[in-house]
């Protein structure tokens, strides 16, 4: 009976899903969970990540990341600016970063080896925030609601397990919050992130250097972060072309006093 009820609820949720359009014009299928639920999942995933650690206790690193995040957040829509954005730096060598619904940003110390300037770090973080504001996590969960793990996910959302976790893995794994997005999502996050960084007063041309550094760091085997991303060389060409069109936006931001001095 419980299983049948769960399936009926899932069916109702899927019926309530909607097709929408992202800021880049891409059609999206979203709405299986509410924004409040997404924020709750993001907060839980972030808490689990921090508990697992290890966290960096370097005050300068934490202030550096927080400064870049704050500068970018000021360029978000009003509803996203009202979120209490929070960042954490993890003492991990893998060059990685992510952002979650509810305003959570995680950065590994390994990213500093490839994001060597504040502008390059803004390219990384802007890309990750782009995933959040373009509702990519919502898209993933909406797809997963029809998958084999839907009953577990629904039960967790309803509080059946006492906390947002399931047998065999945390919500962090179940929702795929920290897994790479689709290539369409990654390309869209590139567009949104590069635009955001230019609006915030970070040089959009730094995104090109950042991805060149990422590829070089991987040698013959690209970093795991790039595994589902678009073809590296095509991506660099697109970033370069877009950077050229965004230079006026960057210059206008600087003229207007948006001159981040993060480090």
Automatic annotation (TrEMBL):
Record family assignment: Belongs to the peptidase M48 family.
Species of the source: Luteimonas marina
CC cofactor: Zn(2+)
Database matches in InterPro entries: Mito/Outer_Membr_Metalloprot, Peptidase_M48
GO molecular function terms listed in the Swiss-Prot or TrEMBL record: metal ion binding; metalloendopeptidase activity
PANTHER family on file: M48 FAMILY METALLOPEPTIDASE, METALLOENDOPEPTIDASE OMA1
Signal peptide: 1-18
CDD domains: M48C_Oma1_like
Name this protein carries in UniProt: M48 family metallopeptidase
Keywords: Hydrolase, Metal-binding, Metalloprotease, Protease, Signal, Zinc
